[in-house]
């Protein structure tokens, strides 16, 4: 039975937990799930809470309504508490830089989480929404999904992750074309270039299919999966030799035969192995 995770109330998300899978759903379909100030503020808190408390072994992010997300809500730009576009140019620029860094950190929470984050995309994945999905571990789409680096068409450069992560996922020449033109590209094209792993016929099949993949991940040793994510992220950003050395160091500290023994015993008995969770990430000093 699904249980609601104890979290601060968010107007942007519905969060549920079942079978060690946390499901975060965008919940503003009438507003095309645009990314409001609350969206940027609440998403990292939710992801970090799930990860820090070891509530789940996988996070699935999906959406509701016609579109996954229309991207940045214009209200963010007009929020005087966040962005001030008047006054001394130097101070204005310093303030804007800090705002952009905060927005970047919000989406980087998906990458920093110890556990995998899978994203199910239907309809439009526009502007900031593409920045978001590029920060996830795996992306899946329905046949009607489309993507666009919308910022270029609007007269600005995408600044919260697409231009940094997208080239790590697909050929650079394709990223350059899509960034320079700002054109839409379809789910089929996204799959052919390697941005999405799989395309499903419709939204219902998409969410069902991604939850099934999440269940396969959740059945494995959580410590082994955490190690996979840590190593893949490190290897993306470092040389092969440095990554191999880090792998050896990680294995010398983290590898223990306990989970392997549980796996072997379960297979012999034709059962599913039961693993302990990774420990919660508690601060050293509690306030």
From TrEMBL:
Keywords: Fatty acid metabolism, Isomerase, Lipid metabolism
Protein's pathway: Lipid metabolism; fatty acid beta-oxidation
Gene Ontology molecular function: isomerase activity
GO biological process, one term: fatty acid beta-oxidation
Tree of life domain: Bacteria
TM helices/strands, residue ranges: none
CDD domains per the UniProt record, alphabetical: crotonase-like
SUPFAM superfamilies found in the cross-reference section: ClpP/crotonase
Family: Belongs to the enoyl-CoA hydratase/isomerase family.
Protein name: Enoyl-CoA hydratase/isomerase family protein
